[in-house]
Amino acid sequence: MSFIFTRTSQMTGNKNRMVIPMDMDDFKYALCCWKDGDLIQDAFPTLDADTREFIMTGITRTEWADMFGGEE
Questions:
Q1: How many angstroms separate the CA atoms of 59 and 51, rounded?
Q2: Using an 8 Å Cβ cutoff, are 40 and 56 in contact?
Q3: What are the tens digits of pLDDT across the range 8-64?
Q4: DSSP SS3 for 5
């Protein structure tokens, strides 16, 4: 299962959307764990770094690349 998650980017102020490849109940549980102090990578171990960054800040991979350039 997956769902669309919407966040406002802390970098640009744009409203961004991303498909999160998790069940909504599992996501809510992991989000609570993270907000209660777990490291994001521990709360969401099945998600990649870009998706975890989006959950934390609303910043997409494209926004990072536009702001700071692509990977070296």
A1: 9
A2: yes
A3: 999 999 999 999 999 999 999 999 999 999 999 999 999 999 999 999 999 999 999
A4: strand
